[in-house]
Each structure stands twice: as C-alpha cells, then as structure tokens.
Amino acid sequence: MTKSFEFTNPLENGIHARPAAEIENRAKPFGCQITLLNKSKGTKADAKSVLSLVGADAVLGDECQFIFDGEDEQAACDALKLFIDNDFAHCDGPLESVAVDVNQPLPVSLIKAEPTHVRGTVVSTGIGKGRPVACSQVDLHQVAENAEFACTGSTGAVLTKALFILCQQLEEAVSQAEATDSHEELTILKAHSQMAGDSLFSETLAKYSQQATPILAIAQASDELKAPMLKSQSNYMRERALDIDDLCTRLASLVVGKALQQPVTLSEDSILIADNLTPSEFLALDKHWLKGLVLAEAGQTSHTVILARSFGIPVLTAVEGAEAFSHNANILILDARYGCLIRDPNDKVTQFYRLEQRKQVAKDALLTPFVTSKGQSRDGHPLALYANIAVGLEAGSAFDRGAEGIGLFRTEMLFMDQEKAPSEDEQYEVYREVIDAAAGKTVIIRTLDIGGDKPLPYLELPEEENPFLGYRAVRMYPQYQSMVESQIRALLRASCHGVVNIMIPMIACVEEVQWINQLCKQCEDQLHAEGVSTGQWRLGIMVEVPSARYMIEKVADMIDFISVGSNDLTQYFMACDRGNRKVSALYDSLHPGFIAFLHDIAKVAKKSGVELGICGEMASDRRALPLLLAMGFDEISLSSPNIVQRRADLAALEFASCRGLLEKVCALATVEQVKAQIDQFWQQQISPEILDEQLVIECDALDKAGVIKQLTDNLEVQGRTDSAGSVEQAIWEREAIFATSLGFGVAVPHCKSDAVSHNSISIAHLAKPIVWNEADGETVSTVIMLTISSHDKEGTHMSIFSKLARKLMHRDFREALMQSETGLDHAEREDVRLAMTQNTAVNTVSLLKGVLYEQVA
C-alpha cells in the first residue's frame, strides 16, 4: 500500500537544481519508488533525479504531492515529510535583483551630451568601456548536419565515454573552485556536476542514441530536457534551460574531440555581445580584458549573470538590435547603472563618464584612511570592527578589507554538503589557516550551530513542531559528543598557532556553560596525554536566548567573552519568527524595549569584566552604531565589505553625545520614534557649515552641463547629498524656468530639494569661460551654486540669492570674487557663518571672500 502526503511549494524560485538536489539527497537512501506529483500542472517527477524534479516545473504556490511505493515506503514518507515541514522552505533564498527600469530617465548631463545609445535592462551593475566583440551561439542541430563534426563508432558507446569524461572534468572544476573559495562559481559547478551525473540525463541520451548519430542524439536529448523548463511560468526555471545547453555543448565538443566554434580571444578592453552565453563559455573568457556583457536573453537569475556579478562584470540584457547597433563601432560604453549602451562617445559623453569616475575615486579616497585605521569615535573611544566569515579562505580578504579581527567564523560550512562530518585533522588545517592569516589579530570561532534552518543530512534529527526553539546547537552536543569533541580538539590544536577564541552558540542556562567548560578542559588533558601541545585559548558564549542575560554574572568566572547574536535574540525577545511574513513587522532590533534589554546585557557584561561583542544584522546597521558605542561594546562583527564605511561613520561620533541618544531612545515608545530620533541625531553629528573650502573647486568642464555635474558630484563626495543626480535634476528644473546668469561673468544656479542633506554654497572657478545662456550667448567664468534642503524653513534660499544678486552690481565685489582676494580672519568668518545660520543680515561678499581665503590657505 502506497504512502503519500501533500504540500504547497513555498520556494520563491521554484524547485530548481539546488532544492531539487536537497530532495534527491534525502530520497536516494531509500529503496522504494518516490514520485513528486505537481498537482497544479499535472506533471510528475522521479524524486531521485534532479533533472526530473526540475522538469516538474513546481513554482511558488503549486500544490504538490509525494508518493511512496515500496518496502521502506513508511520510513521514506516520514523522512521526506519531516524535511518538507521543517527545512524545505529554508533551503533556498531570494536571489539578488538589480534590474533597472529601461524607462527611467538618464541623468540630465548625459542627455545633454547627446549620446548615440540604446537602452537595456541592468542585471549586473557597473560601467565598462571597450571594443565590441560579437560571439555566436552553438546550434547543435546545425553541428549534427556538418560533416566536419562526424564521428565513428557506436553512438551509445561514444556518448557513454564522453559523458564519463564530462563528469570527471566537472568534478575537477568543483575541486578547483573549492580551493579558490569562489562561492558563486562553486555553487554553479556543483549544480552542473549533479545534472551531468543525473540518471535522467544519461537515460535521455541513451533513448536517442538508438536512432541517431552522437551529435544529433545530444541535440534531441537537449531539446527534450529543456522543453519543460522553457514552458515554465517562472523566469528562473526558463533560465535553467541554458545550463542544459551548456552541458550538451560541452558533451558534443568531447564527442568530436575539439571545440565546436572558435573560442573568443580577448586581447584588449572588450564588450562582449551575444544572444546568450553559457556559464562555461563565460568562465573561459579572460576577465582581465572583459569589461562588460550585452546578452539578448539572459535574466536576473541566469547562472552566467550570477557569475558575472561575482567577477564584477557589468551586464545589460534586452538591448534591442545590440549586434547591429555595435557593428563597425570603435568603442562602446556599457552603462549598467542607468541602463544604456553607447557607441563611439563624443567629447561631452566622454566628459560625463570621466566625471563619474572622478567622483567614485574621490569617494573611495575619503574612505582610504579607514582601511588601515582602528575603529574609534571622534573623541577616541574604541570600538573594534571585526568580520564575519563562513569559510576559512575568506579570512585573508576580510583582513585586506580592513577587518581588525574575525568576530564570527561560522563553522557549519565545514560540516554541510557532504556525507559525513569532517575529521579532526581536516578541521585543524582550516582553523590553523585562519589563525595564520590573522597574524595575531583576534579570531572568534563558533562551534557547530546545527538544527533550526541548518540540518545535517548525516545526523538523524528528530521531528519537531518548531525546530528553531527546539533541539539545536549546544543542546544537541551531548548526543553527538564525539563529533563535538573532534571539533574542540581541532580548535585546541590550532591554538598553538595563535590565540583561539571558542564561542558556543545558543547557551540558555548555567549548566550548559559548566558542561562545555569541563569538556574543553577534558579535551585539552587528552591532547596533553597524547603528547600534543596546545596554546592559549579562551571560552565565550553567544547571547541569543533572553535567559542568558540573567546568567552572565554566574558564569563570568568560566568565560572570557560574550557575543550577542542580534538576529536570534531579537526574534526570541519579540517572540516572532523572522522568516514568517505575517509577523515580520515585529522583528526589529531598534524596538525601544529590545534596545533597553540590550543595554541591560551590556551593563551586566561590563560589571562582570566580560568582553562584549555583537554580530548579526544590528552590528552592520548604521542607525544602531551610536547605540552600540554608547552601551560600551568592545567589538562589532559584520560582513567585510561594510567595515570601512562603518569605521568612517564611527569616526564622526562623540561618545558623550551617543550616551545622550541612548537615554532618549530607551524612553521612547515605538520603533518609528526611535528611528526618527536616530536620524535626527546623525543630522546633528554631521552638520557642516553652509560654506566650506571643500565646496570650492577648480572646474575644467566643457559646457554648462559639465559644470553643474561637477558641482553636484562634489556635494555627494562631501556627504551633503546621497544622490548627485537628483540635485542635478532639481538644478536643471530651475534653469528651465529662467537662466541663472546674473551678468558680469557670474551664474548662480540654485535649487531647494529633498535630495539635499545640508544647505550648501558651492563655487566653481572655470578654467575657461563657457556659454551659460544659449539664447544670447552669455558666458560665465565663475559659478556660485546654492543648494538648500526642502526642510529649511528660514528662507535661506532666496535670502542668499537676492543679496548675492545685489552685491554683484558692485565692481569691487566682482573683482574680489574673480581674483580670490580676502580680508577676513577666522573670527570674522565665524561671525558670518553664525549670521547665516540665524538667517539675519548677511554680508555675502565677506562670506564668499572668507571661503576663498580658506581655499588659498
């Protein structure tokens, strides 16, 4: 008698290769036949075949059923149901989406440069410039008709041999990707390896080999395997058809013994244009010369696009007539931010992208000092910034990106995606490499955190109604003590190479700390008895369970540090599953109650003499930064790309001010009030003068559009706007009403906009006069730009403009302005600044001469 159960597919991207592999891994150990029935579409699949499962086209919301038939059907049904109920929804996540609307307007200064361009959809961001290189796609049916690619021998035998070699090549590629820690490449290669070894792949090839030549058999098998994917409602599933193309093209190349087309060779900066590009074709390209891709059919979830993002290669898709547009072009600019492809740029277009590059270089330069500096506030209060890593090879790049230590090494990756736990020696080598890379910096290594959303296939975990609150992390250690001991022994051995900080997850009571503390000492005694030496090691716990706050003092003599796991602590404190959309609004670490609780934890830790850290989303949240500093955290641990920016943010804060903010926030009632209070605080912390020497530039622009772009770009560099383009748009909207040249070689463009963070007066001295008013050909050599925040209620905008207009009538003022002369000392400039902020009578000429004086000085 068969067994079965039904479920609704919860996966946003459908049952594609990765979740299909999870199902296959759990189905294969059983002898019974296991079928997945997609009741919504009437399709069915063999649950022991990734390709068959993908072909069932089970997208989000489809009603599905597993059917079990055979000797061990009950056990199989129980195991699969446990997986579907507890873990299936967590085995795949949403994919990055960077699509830019092709209908969004281009920046005003780019439009005015009149580029020859076509629009496209951005799927990987960036800007690239190079010569166009066209790449055609292999048509296996055409190849099969070509006598040059004919081969001898039995079709079945030829295909079997070629498939064996293909599987070997993919396994080798997987090993190489593991060695280089290329996460995206590794994920895709593993998927291809699993597809190539899938029984459905070989069976479909065998079916057509009985009546066709080898190449034609591959072409026909490819068509059949792709058919259900191409018919799918899901873009993601349709894009998986390209992976079948990739495998079949590689297989056909092995059959004929050579490449089916001339490989693309790049020898200079190039923009590659193709209908499509398989992952293996992309990986074969020289990334040094590849500056961008224009693909006709690729979407957000194409494996080729995912690889391009990991290599930082910009990609446009849906560019109409891209090949014809690029034909005979000398140079292409691929703008995968605004979504356009430009051919043979003129001088003004070249100016636009030169200024874009200059802006980015300037922004990066401001952060450069924070790559190697220590984390501390403006008044010298220290707060170290550590990195989170998931694999050992990430450590080196984390330190290169400014990490002062490793605050969270998640060791689960060592135990996942394999048939058994790693050995003690295997773990020791990984931990040793991280310690060596740290070169004396702090390294905190979290012991195995399994259960919940991180099951291990080789452990028989019990069925639980709520695994997140159940049998997980340290709670499982006694049952799997030998595996835990193996990890602890490896960590202690690695301590010979540097201090090892061992962190235990999910601690909820004193007894767990006592037990793990004793276990670590027993492991050390065992190693010493075996003649194996150990170095210095420290023990810490994660504070993820609210009860941990009330035991810190009681275990302080057994531990050296604590690290708050902000994600879990928030959801447990608020009693809401952060993955449940219906209650996700409750999940917010800036809830005033949670902040007060976290402050309480910090006070207890400090009183107990225990080092205090935090990881999770809150650690990387700019809003939370002043609160964490005020609470007295010793370190925060976040993803390494965010470290330098957060260190720069930290340097703008004063400890005393942050303490005042913390007191105010803890007294508030709602999350919205907290966020508004923090945003107001940041505005006060970074409150630059309306005039600053950094707002005075020497401008080499070719035209009016270039001048305005250079001035607004400088506002973004100086942190006075988050979007130079939006301020630029506001300036041009005002220019459309009337030209702002005031005569005497001076123009005063101005705007009042939400995009302006801080009121600013910018000044550009032009290298040569440029036409400002096309109607009468009037030229200017000095530009004074006024940009006022929409929140300004003091009439600053028109007050400055009108006073400036009057002053320009006086020759002495104009001459002083043009010649950068000054007569003000620092005290006089300060008086002027105060007068401006109080919106009283302002001597505009003195204000401007003061800025010019500072710029010369």
Automatic annotation (TrEMBL):
<dbReference type="Pfam" id="PF02896">
    <property type="entry name" value="PEP-utilizers_C"/>
</dbReference>
<keyword id="KW-0598">Phosphotransferase system</keyword>
<keyword id="KW-0460">Magnesium</keyword>
<dbReference type="Pfam" id="PF00391">
    <property type="entry name" value="PEP-utilizers"/>
</dbReference>
<dbReference type="InterPro" id="IPR006318">
    <property type="entry name" value="PTS_EI-like"/>
</dbReference>
<protein>
    <submittedName>
        <fullName>Phosphoenolpyruvate--protein phosphotransferase</fullName>
    </submittedName>
</protein>
<keyword id="KW-0813">Transport</keyword>
<dbReference type="InterPro" id="IPR035895">
    <property type="entry name" value="HPr-like_sf"/>
</dbReference>
<dbReference type="InterPro" id="IPR008731">
    <property type="entry name" value="PTS_EIN"/>
</dbReference>
<comment type="similarity">
    <text>Belongs to the PEP-utilizing enzyme family.</text>
</comment>
<dbReference type="GO" id="GO:0005737">
    <property type="term" value="C:cytoplasm"/>
</dbReference>
<dbReference type="InterPro" id="IPR000032">
    <property type="entry name" value="HPr-like"/>
</dbReference>
<dbReference type="GO" id="GO:0046872">
    <property type="term" value="F:metal ion binding"/>
</dbReference>
<dbReference type="GO" id="GO:0016020">
    <property type="term" value="C:membrane"/>
</dbReference>
<dbReference type="InterPro" id="IPR002178">
    <property type="entry name" value="PTS_EIIA_type-2_dom"/>
</dbReference>
<dbReference type="InterPro" id="IPR001020">
    <property type="entry name" value="PTS_HPr_His_P_site"/>
</dbReference>
<dbReference type="GO" id="GO:0009401">
    <property type="term" value="P:phosphoenolpyruvate-dependent sugar phosphotransferase system"/>
</dbReference>
<dbReference type="InterPro" id="IPR000121">
    <property type="entry name" value="PEP_util_C"/>
</dbReference>
<dbReference type="InterPro" id="IPR040442">
    <property type="entry name" value="Pyrv_kinase-like_dom_sf"/>
</dbReference>
<dbReference type="Pfam" id="PF05524">
    <property type="entry name" value="PEP-utilisers_N"/>
</dbReference>
<dbReference type="InterPro" id="IPR015813">
    <property type="entry name" value="Pyrv/PenolPyrv_kinase-like_dom"/>
</dbReference>
<keyword id="KW-0597">Phosphoprotein</keyword>
<keyword id="KW-0963">Cytoplasm</keyword>
<feature type="domain" description="PTS EIIA type-2">
    <location>
        <begin position="688"/>
        <end position="839"/>
    </location>
</feature>
<dbReference type="InterPro" id="IPR036637">
    <property type="entry name" value="Phosphohistidine_dom_sf"/>
</dbReference>
<feature type="domain" description="HPr">
    <location>
        <begin position="1"/>
        <end position="91"/>
    </location>
</feature>
<dbReference type="InterPro" id="IPR050499">
    <property type="entry name" value="PEP-utilizing_PTS_enzyme"/>
</dbReference>
<dbReference type="InterPro" id="IPR036618">
    <property type="entry name" value="PtsI_HPr-bd_sf"/>
</dbReference>
<dbReference type="Pfam" id="PF00381">
    <property type="entry name" value="PTS-HPr"/>
</dbReference>
<dbReference type="Pfam" id="PF00359">
    <property type="entry name" value="PTS_EIIA_2"/>
</dbReference>
<dbReference type="GO" id="GO:0008965">
    <property type="term" value="F:phosphoenolpyruvate-protein phosphotransferase activity"/>
</dbReference>
<dbReference type="InterPro" id="IPR016152">
    <property type="entry name" value="PTrfase/Anion_transptr"/>
</dbReference>
<keyword id="KW-0670">Pyruvate</keyword>
<dbReference type="GO" id="GO:0016301">
    <property type="term" value="F:kinase activity"/>
</dbReference>
<dbReference type="InterPro" id="IPR004715">
    <property type="entry name" value="PTS_IIA_fruc"/>
</dbReference>
<keyword id="KW-0808">Transferase</keyword>
<keyword id="KW-0762">Sugar transport</keyword>
<dbReference type="GO" id="GO:0008982">
    <property type="term" value="F:protein-N(PI)-phosphohistidine-sugar phosphotransferase activity"/>
</dbReference>
<dbReference type="InterPro" id="IPR008279">
    <property type="entry name" value="PEP-util_enz_mobile_dom"/>
</dbReference>
<keyword id="KW-0479">Metal-binding</keyword>
<keyword id="KW-0418">Kinase</keyword>
